[in-house]
Amino acid sequence: MGLQPLEFSDCYLDSPWFRERIRAHEAELERTNKFIKELIKDGKNLIAATKSLSAAQRKFAHSLRDFKFEFIGDAETDDERCIDASLREFSNFLKNLEEQREIMALSVTETLIKPLEKFRKEQLGAVKEEKKKFDKETEKNYSLIDKHLNLSAKKKDSHLQEADIQVEQNRQHFYELSLEYVCKLQEIQERKKFEFVEPMLSFFQGMFTFYHQGHELAKDFNHYKMELQINIQNTRNRFEGTRSEVEELMNKIRQNPKDHKRASQFTAEGYLYVQEKRPAPFGSSWVKHYCMYRKAAKKFNIIPFEHRSGGKLGDGEVFFLKECTKRHTDSIDRRFCFDVEAADRPGAALTMQAFSEDERKQWLEALGGKEALLHSFNRAIVPRPEGSAQLDKMGFTILRKCISAVETRGINDQGLYRVVGVSSKVQRLLSMLMDVKTCNEVDLENSVDWEVKTITSALKQYLRSLPEPLMTYELHGDFIVPAKSGSPESRVNAIHFLVHKLPEKNKEMLDILVKHLTNVSNHSKQNLMTVANLGVVFGPTLMRPQEETVAAIMDLKFQNIVVEILIENHEKIFRTLPDATFPEPVSLSTSPPNAPPRQSKRQGQRTKRPVAVYNLCLELEDGDSANLSKEDTPTGNLDSLSSPSPTTAAVHGPPGPDKNHLLADGGSFGDWASPVPCQTRSPMVQWLNTQSPTTPSCSPVVTPPSPKPPPSPLSLPAAMVDKPLESVVNRKARAVYPCEAEHSSELSFEIGAIFEDVQTSREPGWLEGTLNGKRGLIPQNYVKLL
Fold first, then answer.
1. Does residue 180 form part of some domain?
2. Which three-class secondary structure state does DSSP give residue 272?
3. d(Cα 663, Cα 564) in Å, to the nearest integer?
């Protein structure tokens, strides 16, 4: 049973039971007061916890926003770009969510805490004050009655009458106060039901609003989440293919490392110990140097480097070789030694020590010493062994028989082309198909002897066994370029153009195969072979580089993208002719050149990503062009050296300032005012630059110089396109563009800044120099050497 009502008539009787009912009401209000007090305290703790959670979430979002994935190579796939951008998307999602949480926290204070505090102070506090008055009047009233009743009857009547009047007035005042107190007690008991619950309702409404906003944010995020899951799956699939290729290359190199040594711009390079002579009492010491020699220029670079001291790089030295002499053990107490004499230092010979006798012989051969080997430091590309498969009538027959069987028997088989057959069966089937005598006898459509996975594996094995990939070595680099950059439309147009440059037989077979793969992808709901999955399977099958390197394997993902474009645009690419006329090259840039991409990981915030379309032309003064030699081509640009096609040569070069705008020795800023049309640009690069004129680049925050425009991507003779400037040692340089450093190892500077002690850095395309007492990295294409 609840509280008993307080009757106003009982105020005059003021019975013990009436007092018990009043105490019950007071106890209930005291319990309510304590509850509200605790609730306010808990509410404030909730707000504090919410703010702490929000601060932690915001810090988490901030960490997500600041982190950037580095990538291997010179460009990313679209999937990788989306994955990289996903951290910022997650950060923005959390930020929006925390904004709603902050609104909710503020609403808790306004809708719950303040109303409850007001109710407790104004209503319950008022009842407490009324109780104090009631208790005080009760004490006064009954004390006065006791005193009045103790008056002697012998007192004068006037005195007694006056006492009676006083007692009666006091009793009337007590009754009025009692009535008001009883009324207040019952009013508060009823008022608290809505005065207390209404703020709670507002609080929960704010909470529901917060969760609803979260739900709406989640709905908006759902589409992006679905796309991101596809990006992640595509990247995982490409990773699996890349990993197997990398492991295969690693095992090949492990078995025979000498046959897989990369071609280099240097005739010889490697570590040698160099004898450094000291004053007589101290003798001499041997210091390990990384040495590089160009035979054509007879130029020798040595750089001290010690692995055990944390890989500290010392100051390098450059000299020109005069002669090299082998040292015998009877003249020095060390093995594997030889002397090198510099042309510009007559009589001052350096004694060097190789790691082994074989290495000493190789150095002697490269340096023109007396003893030489029949093999060279730089080995030619190891050719792939030619299989018996050929791109002939028999090959077309094999292709058509396999495709017909697959589309008849297994177009809906899950994992079609991904599930491999038994190797022995695959080899036996392929041998029968490639044999003129047995080819016509093999019935793939009706025979149960050959599983679908055996047929698909045989088809892939045939394509991999061709002497040259179906999309050719010559156009491999050209096909990769559009996959790395440009808009989707420009990619399709570029691939469209390149497919029609393939030899007729290659294009015909590719047409048949891609048409079949398009049909396979149309049944992806049953066979689970989406366009992306087919790209992973057939990318390495239809395309492969001529040289096996890790850098080439990192481009596998772009091969997959090329195949995806072929499948998705089969009708346009193979049934229509491409635009035979190339658009005009992009207009001359009025912004400073791109800073070269750093090889090391950056901790700070990075600007836009580098892409694969570069300004592949240079302009140097006539006086500089004669100083460039064939050996000066940068390491890693092997394709540009070996490719028979000028188009391939143009697109294979690495990014960096050597292929952008450079100011060489003796040039002046004003010399760049008269642009010369670029004659040596690859048509493919022209195509892509026109299709995507605003491709992003990884460059510092810069301001265009004034009043004269910066250098433009201009032309060199074709034989000189891939050649950088000579190494820089102990020079001065002047800044021709402003640059803001985005890494602690770089220098910030304004136009006209003078750098001291400038020399070539280990970082390709960067110089090291000193400015205002601070030493750091400088983009080579931002300065002019003095």
1. yes
2. strand
3. 41
Q: Tell me if 445 is assigned to some domain.
A: yes
Separation between Cα atoms, residue 309 and residue 42, nearest integer Å? 58
Indicate whether 495 and 554 sit together in one domain: yes
Q: Are residues 445 and 494 in the same domain?
A: yes
Query: 496 φ, ψ to 5°?
Result: -55, -50
**Is the residue at 605 inside a domain?**
no
Q: How many CB atoms lie within 10 A of CB 315?
A: 11
d(CA 602, CA 777): 13
The model's pLDDT over 608-667, given as tens digits with 9 standing for 90+, comes to 333 333 222 223 333 333 333 333 333 333 333 233 333 333 333 333 333 333 333 333
Assess contact for 763 and 777: CB atoms under 8 A: yes
Structural domain range at position 759: 731-783
Place of tokens 């490639």: 434
- Indicate which CATH number applies to the domain containing 36: 1.20.1270.60
Q: For residue 499, what is the domain's CATH number?
A: 1.10.555.10
Question: How does pLDDT run across 737-773, given as a tens digit for each residue?
Answer: 888 887 777 899 888 899 988 888 777 778 888 998 8
Amino acid at 335: R
CA distances for 384 relative to 262, 378, 381, 546, 648, angstroms:
16, 18, 9, 8, 20
Tell me the C-alpha distance between 722 and 551, whole Å: 18
Same domain, 360 and 431: no
Task: Check whether residue 355 and residue 396 sit in a common domain.
Answer: no
Q: Which residue has the higher pLDDT, 342 or 745?
A: 342
The answer to whether residues 37 and 180 belong to one domain is yes
User: In angstroms, how far is CA 434 from the centroid of its own chain?
Assistant: 46
Q: Return the pLDDT at 167.
A: 83
State the Cα–Cα distance between residues 492 and 579, nearest whole angstrom.
12
Question: What distance in Å separates the CA atoms of residue 544 and residue 44, rounded to the nearest whole number?
Answer: 66
CA 545 to chain centre: 26
State the burial class of residue 105 (Cβ atoms within 10 Å of its Cβ: 0-12, 13-18, 19+). Answer: buried
Mean pLDDT of the chain: 76
DSSP 189: H
Q: How far apart are CA 470 and CA 530, in angstroms?
A: 22
Beta bridge partner(s), residue 352: 274, 338
- 719: pLDDT strictly greater than 50: no
Stretch 433-439: mean pLDDT, rounded?
87
pLDDT in tens, 541-599: 999 888 777 777 788 888 889 999 999 999 999 999 987 654 433 333 334 555 454 44
Collapsed DSSP state (helix, strand, coil) of residue 550: helix
What is the spatial distance between Cα 418 and Cα 525, in angstroms, rounded to a whole number? 15
Find the CATH number of the domain harbouring 761: 2.30.30.40
Q: Who wins on pLDDT, 603 or 361?
A: 361
Q: Lowest mean pLDDT: which of 190-204, 212-226, 239-253, 689-703? A: 689-703
Q: Which is it for the CA torsion 392, 397, 398, 402, positive or negative? A: positive
- Tokens linked to 477: 């680099």
Statement to judge: residues 156 and 55 lie in one domain: yes
Same domain flag for 293 and 400 = no
663-687 average pLDDT score: 36
Residue of 99 and 381 predicted with greater confidence:
99
Identify whether residues 213 and 288 lie together within a single domain.
Answer: no
Query: What is the reported pTM?
Result: 0.51
- 737: amino acid identity, one letter: Y
Beta strand pairing call for 284-294 and 299-306: antiparallel
- Number of structural domains (the chain) is 4
* Any domain includes 423: yes
Number of H helices, E strands in the chain: 23, 12
- Those residues with Cβ within 8 angstroms of residue 424's Cβ, 6 or more apart along the chain or in another chain: none
Other C-beta atoms closer than 10 Å to the C-beta of 528 total 14
Q: In what order do the strands lie in the sheet with 774-779?
A: 774-779, 766-771, 754-760, 731-735, 783-785
Helices (H), 120-156: 125-149
Listed residues 573, 608, 639: the one ending a domain? 573
**Looking at the predicted structure, is the pLDDT value of residue 254 above 90?**
no
